[in-house]
Amino acid sequence: MMTVVEKYRPRVLDELISHKDILTTIQKFISEDRLPHLLFYGPPGTGKTSTILACARQLYGEKEAASMVLELNASDDRGIDVVRGPILSFASTRTIFKKGYKLVILDEADAMTQDAQNALRRVMEKFTENTRFCLICNYLSRIIPALQSRCTRFRFGPLSSDLMVPRLLHVIAEEQVDVTDDGMNALVTLSNGDMRRALNMLQSTNMAYGRVTEHNVYTCTGQPLKSDIANIVDWMLNSDFSGAYRQIMELKTLKGLALQDILTEVHTFVHRVDFPMSVRIHLLTKMAEVEYRLASGTNEKIQLSSLIAAFQVARDMVAAEA
């Protein structure tokens, strides 16, 4: 069964919903037959791979694309041997019966080793006449400066909600999914501008519950509900330490919540509460430390205790200021 993400992946450049300035520039490159080496970077699910695949279809058509395009993903081995082997042999062979240049797509290029990137510099320069390279990555800083300077860079930013909603509504209408208004808001909020993630959440929530509501979306993705976060903050500020710890642990166990997700939502909640500046700074500093320690793989129970302690100190600070 094909996933919704692949089923509704844009096939041509005109179907892409965002980054119109980038698409206009690329269309101009193609129409004038002056396509440079490309470097697409930005967060996942923002249309980088879809854009270059649509370009390939426009350049070569469905039939020719197989022989004119070499696509390598991070799941393939992409050490120096691959650059010196398959990539070099593909780039160096000329097209006898077909005019134009070949296209090498290196998806998730930031997973390439340093040696492979260095080897790629020479290949890109040597075979520019008959081959174009498109590097796609999430983190620009992981691509060596020498490769960056050989490419025209385009940043694909997160999609805005007003771009995502019409596309989601199109998929919902095609698939006849029952989605409520709060369910739609939850999809857009939790996806953080990642169209792929929004569609995956839509599909999984619909398959699990048959109806996409805010509660179902949050439950399906394992994210804490806003009401749960309000309760957690209330317990940390108003209950004694032992009571707050016990209630939060019970909620975590009952709903299968991760402390990392709770911490992210509590951080957003703290910004909305009108704390005195010194108290807010104290809380944000302590939460940053807890997140850092969680990322280092420490014990969740100990870090939860630390988080509760930070809020108990904040309560005392508020009382002292009052």
Automatic annotation (TrEMBL):
SMART domains in the cross-refs: AAA
GO molecular function terms noted in the UniProt entry: ATP binding; ATP hydrolysis activity; DNA binding; DNA clamp loader activity
Record has Nucleus as a keyword: yes
Keywords for the protein's UniProt record, in alphabetical order: ATP-binding, DNA replication, Nucleotide-binding, Nucleus
Pfam families (UniProt xref): AAA, RCF1-5-like_lid, Rep_fac_C
Subcellular location: Nucleus
Gene3D superfamilies (UniProt xref): 1.10.8.60, 1.20.272.10, P-loop containing nucleotide triphosphate hydrolases (3.40.50.300)
GO biological process: DNA repair; DNA-templated DNA replication
GO CC, alphabetical: DNA replication factor C complex; nucleus
Protein's UniProt keywords contain Glycoprotein: no
Domain of life, per lineage: Eukaryota
TM annotation in the entry: none
AAA+ ATPase domain location: 34-162
Signal sequence interval, chain numbering: none
Entries under InterPro entries matching the protein: AAA+_ATPase, ATPase_AAA_core, DNA_pol3_clamp-load_cplx_C, DNA_Rep/Repair_Clamp_Loader, P-loop_NTPase, Rep_factorC_C, RFC_lid
Coiled coil: none
Family statement: Belongs to the activator 1 small subunits family.
Protein name: Activator 1 subunit 5
Protein species of origin: Petromyzon marinus (Sea lamprey)
